[in-house]
Design a protein that fits this description.
Chains A, B: InterPro entries: HTH_LacI (IPR000843), LacI/GalR-like_sensor (IPR046335), Lambda_DNA-bd_dom_sf (IPR010982), Peripla_BP_I (IPR028082). Chains A, B: Residues 4-59 form the HTH lacI-type domain. Chains A, B: This is LacI family regulatory protein. The structure is a homodimer of 330-residue chains. By secondary structure, the first copy, chain A, is α/β, with parallel strands linked by helices. Chain A folds into three domains: 6-58, Orthogonal Bundle (434 Repressor (Amino-terminal Domain)); 63-159 and 289-316, 3-Layer(aba) Sandwich (Rossmann fold), CATH 3.40.50.2300; 161-287, Rossmann fold (3-Layer(aba) Sandwich). The first copy, chain A, has 14 helices and twelve strands. A six-stranded parallel beta sheet of chain A has the order 2-1-3-4-5-11, with helices on both faces. The first copy, chain A, has a six-stranded mixed beta sheet with strand order 7-6-8-9-10-12, sandwiched between helices. In chain A, strand 1, helix 5 (75-87) and strand 2 form a beta-alpha-beta unit. The longest helix of chain A is centred in the C-terminal third of the chain and has 17 residues, at 289-305. Chain A is elongated, with a radius of gyration of 26 Å. The N and C termini of chain A lie far apart (77 Å). At the A-B interface, helix 4, helix 5, strand 2, helix 6 and helix 7 of A face helix 4, helix 5, strand 2, helix 6 and helix 7 of B.
């Protein structure tokens, strides 16, 4: 069926197209209430909806920004996006996209097409430099929480991942663990690389042996699948690069009748809500996700306001939260 | 700084505005490669970005649809949205919004303004009939997964919530529980009401006493806060209206040194991924979230294709998944 046009409204209300246009655009003060009512009734009767694009050309009264996360299935990213939403200024609209690498680069294109004034990129990009340059040329603000190392054309907000890896290592060293497993993603993103590297460096300095078990991705399923490998590794502790891996590992160990922390200690990363509510409570590196989201949003809005300002970046502290999933061997 | 215009590109490339327009719109075959290169270079040099709205008026080559969920913090909704994304046809773009009741109604307005052709509404609306009528008049497709009882102007896809409540009750009855607690949200949505009502009805028929504990919302925090009330209720089992409440309850009971299922059995609802990975594994009512998402998307795309087709609704079966959080008293 053909969509109703403004002509249909005018014919039904028995007024001119100009009258319809003015009344529907809230500029119909000079018309009688009866005429205005007739136009609104006619609009509803014929099912007319103004062409949103045509209308927004004239009065787009909000700023569109976008956020790109790897997936909404992992609660860390859900919490990040929800935190952005909760802090959104009234005249700003947020479009949420998901995707990793090539798919993340494509999501950027889609947001540019949609007219976004700025984009917060939580995902790893396939070609970060190219994306950053393109957005800069087009005066579209960009904040990254990954890829921050060499990206001079984007503002950056990130957790101190190296500090996190080191805190996890120091915790296990202090508890007397001398043989540990590092459980991580096979394809490392920058942030995961920092966590893993500083964990291994700290352990090496302390003379602790680290064996590595690669996993398919960062999911609970991948953690569970790694349980057998952990159980035969002779390690007394495992560091998983995120909480979901850690939770999966603990549940996989339980199926093998291994208990945490009695048989093996487990440390996670993120401190998603599930870490605190898990049984046993998960010892993990806390990322301040709401501060990360708020700061990303602030940087983005500042850049939209003043595109020429100097680049901003900030590294946010992490903490080790000690719960029941690790125990001292001393 | 003033945004670069097409004039700036034309001046920099030393060609006419018409030439720039044709080349940037991929209609510049008749121009030399040198001219085309010069125009693209000029565009990048001046940082010109075509007005997305102006452009999409002429050639909007994708369909925009929207989804509105209560929050992205709860993994059930994250899984629903991610499942929609995974199934999205190539020429369809998805805008994700979050909000409940009045905020959900406003999210509908925002999606209409953005030119959405259809909206999947997972949240409870404040005025479902009004929203459905308005969208119908404007020929915008609408699928609801809540509010389905009396909403004749929207297609509906929903889990058999009454069946779920009954299955939970029958499981506890079969295990010999004679005093149970129902743990639920203070402000009921339709779906939660169905779960709770059929649970209570089934229990009543079996002569089992049900006491109710209201919670602030459906979060893990609310479940944890209810642990004391459950522990003094003398009930041998608790039915929580979603998994997050159940997980929160189990962790709250652990802090009181109550063990699940030894001291009290716990049943959840949803079967989010955390139910299987929790310790103990959570007995829960499984909702087929990916089938719910796929079917919602199919209904929406069919309605967009043919707005006049008859209303569709479908109720999707649920199952009870028995894990380690419940035990037989017999």
């Amino acid at each position: 069926m053909k969509k109703a046009s403004i002509k249909d409204v005018a014919r039904t209300a028995d007024v001119s197209i100009a009258t319809v246009s003015q009344i529907l655009n809230n500029k119909g003060e000079r018309f009688s209430q009866a005429t205005r009512d007739r136009v609104f009734e006619a609009r509803d009767a014929v099912g007319y909806v103004p062409n949103a694009n045509a209308r927004s050309l004239k009065k787009r009264d909000y700023t569109l920004i976008g956020v790109i996360v790897p997936t909404l299935k992992l609660p860390y990213f859900g919490a990040f996006v929800q935190s952005l939403r909760d802090d959104l200024p009234e005249n700003v609209s947020l479009s949420i996209m998901s995707g990793e690498r090539e798919a993340a680069d494509e999501a950027v294109d889609r947001l540019v097409e949609a007219g976004a004034s700025g984009i917060i990129i939580v995902s790893q990009l396939a070609e970060p430099e190219t994306v950053a340059q393109t957005l800069k040329q087009r005066h579209i603000a960009m904040v990254v929480t990954e890829n921050h190392a060499n990206l001079k054309d984007a503002d950056a907000v990130f957790s101190k991942d190296r500090m996190g890896g080191r805190l996890a290592a120091e915790h296990l060293i202090a508890q007397g663990h001398e043989r540990v497993v590092l459980l991580g993603n096979q394809v490392f993103t920058d942030n995961l690389t920092y966590r893993a590297e500083s964990f291994k460096e700290t352990m090496l300095e302390a003379g602790v042996k680290v064996s590595e078990i690669t996993t398919h991705n960062l999911s609970k399923q991948s953690g569970q699948a790694a349980a057998m490998a952990v159980s035969i590794s002779k390690a007394t502790a495992a560091f998983a690069l995120n909480d979901d891996l850690a939770i999966g590992l603990i549940s996989g160990l339980a199926k093998l009748n291994w208990r945490v922390p009695d048989d093996v200690s487990v440390v996670g990363f993120d401190d998603t809500e599930y870490a605190a509510f898990y049984q046993p409570g998960l010892t993990t590196v806390h990322q301040n996700v709401s501060l990360l989201a708020q700061t990303s949003l602030n940087f983005l809005m500042q850049r939209i306001e003043n595109f020429q300002m100097a680049r901003q970046d900030i590294a946010i502290d992490v903490d080790l939260i000690e719960r029941a999933s690790t125990r001292s061997l001393k």
